[in-house]
Amino acid sequence: MESIKEFKKGMDFTAKTFAGLEDALAAELTELGADDVKVIKRGATFRGDEALMYKVNYLSRLAVRILKPIGVFDVKDDNQLYDKVRKINWMDVFKLNQTFSVDANLFYSELDHSHYASLKTKDAIVDQFREATGKRPWVNVENPDIYVDVHISHNVCTISLDSSGESLHRRGYRIVADKAPINEVLAAGMINLAGWKGDSDFYDPMCGSGTIPMEAAMLAMNIPAAYYREKFAFMNWEGYNEELWKKVKEEANDLMGETDCRIFASDRSDKAVAFAKRNLKHAGLHKDIEIKVAYFDSVKPENGGMLIMNPPYGIRMEERGELRDLYKGIGNVLKQNFAGCEAWVISPNFDTAKFIGLRPSKKITLYNGPVETRFLKFEVYEGTKRYGDNPDEKSFSREKREFRKKDDSRGSDGPRRESSKRDYKSGRDESRDSRDNRSEGRIRDLDKDKETNQGSRDGRHEGRRRDYDERRGDSDSENRREVIEKRSKDFDRHMESLRRFTKSDTKRPVKRKPGGRKRISGKDSSKEDKNNDAVKD
Ligand SMILES: C[S@@+](CC[C@H](N)C(=O)[O-])C[C@H]1O[C@@H](n2cnc3c(N)ncnc32)[C@H](O)[C@@H]1O
Questions:
Q1: How far is residue 22's CA from residue 27's CA, in Å, rounded to a whole number?
Q2: How far apart are the CA of 269 and the centre of ligand 1, in A?
Q3: Rounded to 10 degrees, what is the CA torsion of 81, 83, 84, 88?
Q4: Cα 436 from Cα 510, distance rounded (Å)
Q5: Which of 3, 171, 248, 259 could form a disulfide with 220 if both were Cys (CB 3.0 to 4.6 A apart)?
Q6: Are 140 and 94 in contact (CB under 8 A)?
Q7: Which of 176, 179, 268 best tests ligand 1's pocket when mutated (most atoms within 8 Å of CB)?
Q8: According to CATH, what is the number of the domain 184-225+256-379?
Q9: Fold that domain 5-162 belongs to in CATH
């Protein structure tokens, strides 16, 4: 029999992560004291002792799981897999009364069904126990004691024990989640790649259930990634050293501290913010993160800082147009409110990101599960220039100005717009319904846009328009009116789709009656975990 003791001597490990985070993970492992760290696809291998295995499980923000290989062999078919798995001494690994599960992944292998490879591995383990004891250990897919990992690549099979068990993204702090929560490891990875270390104010103005700001707060205060988590698979292993585990934890916990930086989280959805608050309270971080219901365009940093945001993805085709409007809005707000900040946006593909209209100074490809994303850096400063994705979009602000001029002069739907403007400026009239508030927000955007365009920064636009007018001459005025009318219609369509988009799932904050309470219906954490699995490792 191949004994696992041979492998224990070496103490090789594999840490798995998301594609795009491998180098950051390798650097993190080195910092945690790992030796011989090597980057591999979606992970890194390293060497270390048992204490390091505990430490990496407890502290790594970027690893999804830590595997400990116990057998490596060539394999060409299912029968060979069965025979070679059976040669590993499984009774050194776990006891008859413990449950286990097998997870197989195949890459470039002559075996073609990962499910069948799992079954063969399970059979080999069960048969070995049965032959030796007359009894068999049971499989438990949901909550096993022992997690066996089978990785076959180019016909080389590595059998590992998964020391983490449940994926390490399950930090234990998120008890409820609104739509599309980002994976915790990905959120930590984004903060890491952005280079934020708790040294400036931090903003997530589309915070949803609060994952990104919570990861930021934990990083800033040195709270171990798995501080809120209680279970790891290694605790069920033969020879688990509880004293050593406690020592590793205590040493890490002693390094926790406070932070001087301020962390701001907001979202337009009161439901999302309510969920985020519950998560913050659960984690005891409610005093460390300043959270409120707010539209992105009302967030304005006072002291610069870092912004990391995860806007809606909108993968469905019919959402594309609406997403384009949303991302254009993001570009405008970054330019107007976030001068002096470093902004990072994760978005589903580069086309969408282009609508932001600002030139990214860095583009990183990251995978959110199967979804390829771009993590884009924008350094926003006074006078940041837009770049257009097509000539029409370049002149979009001008169109708006022309549209508004025309609109003002002919007075069509003027009163509604005027009163919205007044309401916004006085900051009163909360009796309006949320729909009006939304259009008010959009009108406010237009006003800002108009102001911006009239400012010195955009003097070049005015210059361009003068040139344009002179070139065309008066004889073209008829033509021009038609163009403007067409643009006005386009702009109406643009506004309508923006209204539809913002109407979809959220409301402007409404003022509650004193003592009034709103029921919050949350998912239970197990449900949330399952949802989250769709984008997990
Ligand atoms: C993909 S979710 C963010 C998920 C979040 N990172 C998490 O882990 O839970 C996108 C969020 O953007 C919010 N959002 C969309 N448009 C917004 C706007 N204009 N202002 C503020 N929040 C907005 C949505 O309400 C939603 O919660």
A1: 9
A2: 8
A3: 130
A4: 12
A5: 259
A6: no
A7: 268
A8: 3.40.50.150
A9: VC0802-like (3.30.2130)
